[in-house]
Specification:
Blueprint (H helix, E strand, L loop, with lengths): L8 E5 L2 E4 H21 L10 H20 L5 H19 L13 H30 L9 H36 L4 H32 L16
Antiparallel strand pairs: 1-2
Helix pairs in contact: 1-3, 2-3, 3-6, 4-5, 4-6, 5-6
GO cellular component, one term: proton-transporting ATP synthase complex
Protein name: ATP synthase subunit a
Keywords: ATP synthesis, Cell membrane, CF(0), Hydrogen ion transport, Hydrolase, Ion transport, Membrane, Transmembrane, Transmembrane helix, Transport
Length: 234
């Protein structure tokens, strides 16, 4: 039993071996690109929306609504970033029910790359929103003593993101393989349903945490000159 799709080589280009993780990642990106193009190719006001276009708009509006609830200052770029993360992860996790398909999110290299993209996005969004000095000042809040702890916290976020997604998807695949050997006619259906639910939840959690981290970096600092409201003396 293979614990990760990294061990399966699909084909090789010279000395470059393309494993299942890379191949399936390309497959998902091609699928999302093709679906997006097919649904939006007739995106004109005079053309009535199709069912697929309506479904896509519902998904986008849902993601936009979640970001608006979390972020104090909703940014269109945050919709593109977090929405892309969610669609890629949820598509990868849902396709695990296809026989022979190993989701790329069951590989630590994929989840680490996704977490790294969040770690890079946080300072980019923070600097573009608050400026370099304003963003760096968040590392010494509420006091300069907290600088090393804030730096460690920043890196621990990335490790937590990668391990959480990888652990849940990989463990689900291992448990399904074990139960398949115990009761091959009953447990596959149950595990597929549980895997779909877990995959959607994990994609949601990853995208929400990425949105929270970026929103905290772009949030305006508290105005310390604003006086506190007077207490009621009655």
């Amino acid at each position: 039993m293979e614990l990760t799709p990294d061990d399966t080589i699909v084909f090789a280009i010279g000395a470059l071996a393309i494993n299942k993780t890379i191949f399936n990642t390309w497959l998902i990106m091609a699928l999302l690109t093709a679906v997006s193009w097919l649904v939006t190719r007739n995106l004109r006001p005079e053309v009535p929306p199709s069912r697929w276009r309506t479904a896509l708009e519902v998904i986008v509006r849902g993601i936009e609504g979640q970001i608006a609830e979390i972020s104090q200052a909703p940014d269109r770029r945050l919709l593109y970033f977090s929405g892309t993360l969610f669609l890629f992860i949820v598509t990868s996790n849902l396709l695990m029910v296809v026989p022979g398909f190993d989701p790329p999110t069951a590989s630590l290299s994929t989840t680490a790359a996704l977490a790294l993209s969040v770690l890079v996005a946080v300072p980019i969004f923070g600097i573009s929103s608050r400026g370099l000095g304003g963003y760096l000042a968040t590392y010494v809040e509420p006091s300069v003593v907290m600088l090393p702890f804030n730096v460690i916290s920043e890196f621990s976020r990335g490790i937590s993101l990668a391990i959480r997604l990888y652990g849940n998807i990989m463990s689900g695949a291992v448990i399904a393989a074990i139960l398949l050997g115990v009761a091959p006619f009953f447990f596959p259906v149950v595990m597929d349903m549980l895997g779909l639910l877990t995959g959607i939840i994990q994609a949601y959690i990853f995208a929400i945490l990425a949105t929270v981290y970026i929103s905290s970096a772009t949030a305006a600092p508290p105005d310390r000159d604003t006086p506190e409201p007077a207490k009621d003396q009655t």
